[in-house]
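Case study.
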Amino acid sequence: MLKIAVQKSGRLYEDSLQLLKECGLSIDNGMDQLKAEVRNFPAEIYFLRNSDVPQYLEDGVVDLAIIGENVLMEKQSAVTILEKLGFSKCRLSLALPKHLPYLGITQLNGKKIATSYPHLLRSYLESKGVSADIHLISGSVEIAPNIGLADAICDLVSSGSTLFKNGLEEKDIILRSEACLAVNNQSINIKNEWIDELRFRIRSVLQARGHKYILFNIPNEKIEIASSILPVLKSPTVLPLLENGWSSLHSVIHVHDFWNVIKKLKEIGAQGILVIPVENMVI
Ligand code: ATP
Ligand code: MG
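After joint prediction, the assembly is written out as follows.
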């Protein structure tokens, strides 16, 4: 039985459950607030506080966790990251009041920096030969400069709107983070089979999210040029249409290439272009 930790409520909660559900896990999160059974996979889901996850994982109370890389790095957890999951992306950054010119990290020598990430900040500063006074606060770090508590902050940023609202500006990035699947180092040997199965499903779901299925009609003499436009897995499928001289081309494209590909296909005379989401992609 795999014990999997996800955040109890907060930023990672919905995306974590969504991912597990798309992996086909049917989770009964009804009455019990701490634990949920999975009906069709040998797993239990534990709903934990974000900050508690690294310890539970390291101690083997849970085998796996969906958690921000930033949390594991700060706690220096002796666990292994198996997969990056592509959501809850953020940066741990240094930010200063907007009006202050920033000439480089050495400017922070002897200054006071407020953060909830003392370990990551300290190692970054040390690596740059900077010695600053680190002021640990657990929340609302971004108000510290305004109330005279610090000269700068080191905090998580995604859109930057919280910094902006507080008259701060991101000056330096210490770490980039996203949600990941992490494993307890003993569990990986003992429960290998089911961990591998879950990883396989996660990869298929993440692959699929990055791709779309596309089909369109094209005159036969344009098949070659159309396939050269498609950055395909293999070569596209070509099916004859009833109408003479026309074919239907099917392929899978990356979402990043999407609009570009559509534009080029239209230019060469593709018609009836259909784009369909991919639910799973096993490669
Ligand atoms: P707890 O669950 O213990 O109450 P928390 O309140 O810190 O912890 P959340 O704020 O819900 O938890 O989530 C924090 C996590 O979300 C971070 O550790 C990080 O991985 C991720 N995250 C993504 N973007 C941001 C952001 N802009 N600010 C803060 N956290 C972010
Ligand atoms: Mg919280």
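Observations recorded in class. The chain has a mean pLDDT of 95. The longest strand covers residues 168-177. We will return to this complex in the next lecture.
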